[in-house]
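Hey team,

Filing this mostly as a record. A colleague (T.K.) asked me to run one chain through the structure pipeline before their review meeting, and I want the input and output archived in the tracker in case anyone asks later how it was produced. No errors, nothing strange. Just documentation.

Input sequence:
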Amino acid sequence: MTQGLLASVGHGQRVLGAVLGGMRSGLHEQVAQSWTRCVNEYRLDPDGEPHPPMLDRNALALRCRRLGDVIEAARLEMSTLYQQLADTETAVVLTDGEGVILHLVSSPEFAQELEPVGFTVGALWNEAYAGTNGMGTCLALAEPVSVRQEDHFFTRLTSLTCSAVPVHDPEGRMVAVLDVTSRSALQQQHVLVLLGMTARMIENRLIDQRYRDSHPLHFHTRPELVHTLHEGRLAVDGEGVIRAANRSALFQLGVDHPQALCGRRLEEVFQTTLDDLLERNRAASFHPVAVYRANGAHRFFAVARCPVAEAQPQSPLQAGARGLSSALAPAARAVRAVPVTGLADPQLVQQLHTGARVLARGTPLLLRGETGAGKEVFARALHERSPHAAGSFVAVNCASLPESLIESELFGYRAGAFTGAQRNGRRGKILQADGGTLFLDEIGDMPLELQARLLRVLDERRVTPLGTEETHPVDFQLISASHRNLLELVAQGRFREDLYYRLAGIELGIPALRERSDKRELIQRILQEENGGPVVLRPEAEQLLMGHRWPGNVRQLRHVLRAAVALADGAPVGLEHLPSLRPSPAAVPAPAVADAPAAALASVSLLASGMVPAETPAPQGLNLIQSHERQVLLQLLEQHRWNVSNVAKALDVSRNTLYRKLHKLQIAVSQRA
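Output structure:
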């Protein structure tokens, strides 16, 4: 305790010494300027308590309505960033242009831990109230900042590290700040890079949302970077007039502000008209075609498409803002029907809008689709668009749990309820979903006796953990999913009819991958995600991917593309990097010994798909050291049950490095029957 007090006094003295005494050695200029503003302009005491004021419900609802499209564009991108950071002591935060927190993604425990300092939705975190911090200082400087622990002005905040970047609207105005706050004491350059990429994706989504009736135009000086984060993007109306441009477009065209482009005709910027470009793109199957600047100085590659509004009819429901807690008035937390992030298939988009409207009314949903079609991803998207978005999304796969564990997983148990129970008991999934969404995947595999207990919980909205008579009220929204036809199971007596009608307030079908019209966009997006940046896909490889039937749907596609990225190792992805989609071994002659590397390539693809090892013949062409290294790696793989990610972590190498090593050492795998 004494050490803590001394540390507190030391930090306050350091701040005042830097501001009043000019002792700024080792202090970043951004931080020094912020401390000076806090002392001289805002009259703050570094040893005092930060006091971010809280907006009332009406004021917060008004701000969320005003920036509803910004919140919508940011919501899923923030969730993706949070998953990438993979740290439970991290929060991804969105504020408006004045510093009011509008949306926050974090673990419930970390969010609860930060509540005492006012770190919550509705709080105002500008420098005048919260001192030097990521969000407030980014607003003050209008540029990316990183505020590490003792860089904070207030002593109370020195356990945190914040990084923040500005978010601009299509008109170039700074409308929001995107921030990552954590306990990490490390340098935050990688976090700033991820934040910058996320901010650009949000800005691109804003252009898509605000200019649905305009033609999206994508361009870059390199054709392989079209449809990536680095592309320039314009919104062009039907008359060929530019209405909006992203930051990459401004940079590539050498202008400083969107107003320098907006209002000009397309032929004033490029040597082409909108109609000519659309016709050339159609003839090229919407691959990038060459265009030149109006002055002929530079060549670009561009793709123009029809307006989103023509391909995806907009839902009439446009009320309210999201990002508020369930305590807000119903009108303030109504679901917004806006274009869906990452989806271009009209059927899937319409299903998502329908599901969001129904879920907002408290009606349970039943999703039906083939295995691997993305039912859980779809359910998460519904949760993000729901009035319970501020709560947890809790997923339970009823098919993957042993029957003996399903009951304890769902309902929880008190300490000592059964042999092997945790010492302190356990909260069940239903209690964890209180205030959020409970997703029951493969509900058709739930045992009949548990179906009765689940039905009672759904009717009474109360749950009783195992080993106790104490009941707990719960409030959650329910989404269920199955690849089976539940009505057929009902007819066979394997599923309760009353539970079916309780689950299926409405049943939505999730299309299989082969039925989706956005396969090309999906392939490009997954490739970029797996590579962490742009990937060049050769035409013959794209043709193979587009023509495949994909019995495993999106899950299979991701495994195949993950392996392809690893095998390509930065080179353009071609047919040789898609061995699992080539003719099966039964259709081609067995490879000779000299073809062992090619067989190993196919094996690595199966390893990336989660297959287990098979017995392999003795490798040829390996020296004594390589053979020993191969044996050690095989033992390590067996130890980790052939989980490639865990082996890579144990070796402290990247997955790509491990894949290359597996290939070099001819470690083959195949699917065990």
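Quick notes for T.K.: The domain at 343-509 is CATH 3.40.50.300 (Rossmann fold). Residues 55 and 266 are 44 Å apart (CA to CA).
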